Amino acid sequence: MNKQLIEALEWRYACKKFDAEKHISTADLDTILYSIQLTPSSYGLQPIKVLLIESKELREQIKPIAWNQAQVVDASHLLVFCHYTAITPAAVDQHVELMAHTRNLPLEKLQGFGTHVKSSIENMNADHVTQWTGKQTYIALGQLLLSCALLKIDATPMEGFDREALDKLLDLSKDGLSASLLCPIGYRHAEDPYIALKKVRKTKETLFETR
After folding, report:
1. Per the count of CB atoms within 10 A, which of 42, 83, 94, 197 is most buried?
2. Cα separation of 207 and 54, whole Å?
3. Would residue 94 count as lying in a domain?
4. Is the pLDDT confidence value at 120 over 90?
């Protein structure tokens, strides 16, 4: 068992009180963002966008939308995970072109892949597409949580917010986006009462089953 990985995961928890005076370094922030960029996604499409909210004024506006959770303002940075509410054939074409360019392949070799992806998406109704793209943000969130834990940076994922109000505040619909998750990141305050609490998890025998 990898000691470094397990210790990092045992160290992390959903921080309730951030130290507003501590800020993530540029180097660590770049590492965190790059880890999100490397997140796997269905067909490699990355049908998500992550907003880095640095403006204190904007974060104060988001706070009441997020049920007045103080982490939104007190954390070093606030990430808003968004998903595209539709995937157009043009978006698939752009992805295929990027694949061809990145891997130095003739575009013709990827046309079959592009046709398959378009066909798959065309067979989904609008609600299915939105649910599917929304799920991709959770994969990215998992990668963020692990990366932050390894860097000893706290991250607190949040679903507790008014999605429609946040979409309106950030004017997300103009870009075909909708918010899925909030995640403040930063450093825990020494007075956070949750620091010393032991994790409550199911036993290995209960959680896993071999068949």
Report:
1. 83
2. 39
3. no
4. yes
